[in-house]
């Protein structure tokens, strides 16, 4: 089994009695790109702050690199680079000075500053005050500071927030190269599945403070319920006929949607329609997009939450 | 700890903090130049020991200036981290929170020591310029220049703590500025009113307030540090 880098057990955090994170269990293996997904306000940042020791959990445990960090985060933090929410920077200083102010606090040689500047492609602008930077450049500087200490674990909280598509693409490529090129494990959070989809190897979905999914991205895809969509000559007649024979289906969009997609079932349905002289125009397989699955999952979580809080 | 101090020194670059460090003592001496120009005879008559008289006059101005300086420096130092929410990044580096807090406090003390030294030199130059002669009371002058800093340490510790704790600097600034104003009117204030400690009042022994300042200042510093260690970072 692979080394587990991050392991949380029943993590809980409340703000003034209101739970923001309820019993979150994360498990991230070495070399993974872990996509931490959830709509705004789901508790991603709060969880990440606890991982970094910025906030103390009300209950539950955090293990980083196989060690419980309840008493001290110091050793674990030496191996972690992070970017939480908006990038932190000192606007009156240049990018190089910003990195130097951080470098003084961690044990890395000065040459590392040039390395990270070139990784995020800020070398040319390195000696300009950061207040004149675009949002994308500030974000890249944030990633550069996260990489400065040669981390084994990179924690990025919504790193593409507010970036334009090309900026998003750039950061995505950068993150994708981390495990192969530098052997870094990555935890990246986002409220958009599409962003995580193309780089994550594992996904955890959080909604209203609760983990509602935790598996590989393939497993998430498999959750996609496929349907067979039938467009026929007389939908009403066809529906009554099929329902009468015990098939499960729904009518909508001028078509019938068949739940059971197994081949023999589809064959039977078509056979029946043909025998009864109902013309068949289209037979299509329909698969929900990942985004739809994600929205469905988080909605379910929401509905469950609403029920429990109402009772 | 040393690396934190170095990093903090780098961060105050291009801020006008160092300017303030020079402005404080310069302003106090400038006001005394005006003071002595306008009523030289009266002032000399009031206190025949000319150097002692000068020190008393300087102290009256230095006490509120020092409190104001402490307030602004503490606020500026904290604000460097508040501005682009840098606390979260700073505190997720492998450094101890207590060192982060101590470093801010020590940078402030160092800046104020520079101010006090400048005040010391300035007072001597002013005295000499006023033809008080070169045989000035070295020790008393040194004491007079550093007294408000030492007696004011509790205020500094309090301001550092509040400036770091509150993102909105209006709270610590309001408290600090009120303290500086009330300090000038606080002859009759009870002894626990820490804002009056930097003032030298006729009938009290300054040494006691230096001692109290260091002691209480250290206690406030510890309380602030423990609080900072426990607090959640937003
Ligand atoms: N410092 C705080 N004080 C009070 N409530 C907070 C604080 N931080 C976050 N919350 C609340 O906790 C919930 C989760 O927030 P957050 O972790 O920031 O979500 P996400 O990062 O997934 O958008 C939200 O309802 C938010 O309002
Ligand atoms: Mg967030």
From TrEMBL, chain A:
This is ABC transporter ATP-binding protein. GO terms for molecular function: ATP binding; ATP hydrolysis activity. PROSITE patterns: ABC_TRANSPORTER_1, ABC_TRANSPORTER_2. The keyword Transport applies. Belongs to the ABC transporter superfamily. Gene3D superfamilies: P-loop containing nucleotide triphosphate hydrolases. Residues 6-233 form the ABC transporter domain. Keywords: ATP-binding, Nucleotide-binding, Transport. CDD domains: ABC_BcrA_bacitracin_resist (cd03268).
TrEMBL record, chain B:
The keyword Cell division does not apply. Keywords: Membrane, Transmembrane, Transmembrane helix. Pfam families: ABC2_membrane_4 (PF12730). The keyword Transmembrane applies. The chain crosses the membrane at residues 16-38, 58-78, 105-134, 146-164, 171-189, 209-228. It comes from the Bacteria. CDD domains: ABC-2_lan_permease-like. This is Permease.
């Amino acid at each position: 089994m692979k080394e587990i880098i991050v392991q949380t057990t029943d993590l809980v955090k409340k703000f003034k009695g209101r739970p923001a994170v309820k019993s979150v269990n994360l498990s991230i293996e070495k070399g993974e790109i872990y996509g931490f997904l959830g709509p705004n306000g789901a508790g991603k940042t709060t969880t990440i702050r606890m991982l970094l020791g910025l906030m103390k959990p009300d209950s539950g445990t955090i293990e980083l690199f196989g060690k419980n960090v309840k008493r001290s985060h110091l050793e674990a933090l030496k191996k972690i680079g992070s970017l939480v929410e908006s990038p932190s920077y000192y606007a009156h200083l240049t990018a190089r000075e910003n990195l130097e102010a951080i470098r003084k606090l961690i044990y890395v040689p000065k040459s590392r500053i040039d390395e990270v500047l070139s990784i995020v492609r800020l070398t040319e602008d390195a000696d300009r005050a950061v207040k004149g930077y675009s949002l994308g450049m500030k974000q890249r500087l944030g990633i550069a500071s996260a990489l400065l200490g040669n981390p084994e674990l990179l924690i990025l909280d919504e790193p593409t927030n507010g970036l334009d598509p090309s900026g998003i693409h750039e950061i995505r490529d950068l993150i994708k190269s981390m495990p192969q090129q530098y052997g870094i494990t990555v935890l990246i959070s986002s409220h958009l599945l599409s962003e995580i989809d193309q780089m994550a190897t594992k996904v955890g979905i959080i909604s209203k403070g609760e983990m509602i999914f935790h598996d590989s991205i393939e497993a998430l895809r498999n959750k996609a319920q496929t349907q067979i969509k039938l467009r026929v000559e007389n939908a009403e007649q066809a529906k009554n006929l099929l329902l009468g024979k015990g098939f499960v289906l729904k009518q909508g969009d001028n078509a019938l949607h068949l739940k059971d997609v197994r081949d023999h079932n589809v064959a039977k349905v078509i056979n029946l329609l043909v025998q009864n002289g109902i013309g068949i125009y289209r037979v299509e397989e329909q698969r929900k997009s990942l985004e739809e699955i994600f929205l469905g999952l988080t909605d379910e979580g929401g509905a469950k939450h609403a029920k429990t809080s109402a009772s | 700890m040393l690396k934190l101090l170095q990093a903090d020194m780098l961060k105050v670059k291009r801020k006008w903090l160092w300017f303030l460090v020079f402005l404080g003592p310069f302003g106090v001496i400038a006001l005394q130049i005006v003071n002595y120009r306008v009523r030289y005879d009266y002032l000399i008559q009031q206190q025949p020991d000319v150097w002692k008289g000068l020190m008393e006059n300087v102290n009256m101005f230095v006490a509120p200036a020092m409190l104001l300086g402490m307030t602004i420096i503490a606020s500026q130092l904290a604000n460097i981290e508040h501005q682009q929410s840098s606390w979260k990044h700073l505190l997720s580096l492998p450094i101890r929170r207590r060192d982060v807090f101590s470093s801010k406090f020590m940078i402030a003390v160092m800046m104020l020591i520079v101010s006090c030294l400048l005040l010391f030199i300035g007072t001597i130059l002013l005295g000499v310029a006023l033809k008080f002669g070169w045989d000035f009371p070295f020790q008393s002058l040194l004491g007079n220049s550093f007294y408000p800093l030492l007696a004011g340490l509790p205020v500094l510790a309090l301001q550092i703590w509040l400036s770091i704790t509150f993102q909105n600097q209006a709270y610590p600034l309001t408290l600090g500025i009120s303290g500086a104003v009330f300090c000038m009117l606080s002859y009759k204030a009870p002894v626990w009113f820490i804002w009056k400690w930097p003032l030298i009042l006729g009938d009290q022994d300054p040494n006691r307030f230096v001692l109290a300042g260091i002691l209480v200042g250290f206690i406030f510093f510890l309380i602030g540090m423990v609080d900072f260690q426990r607090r959640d970072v937003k």
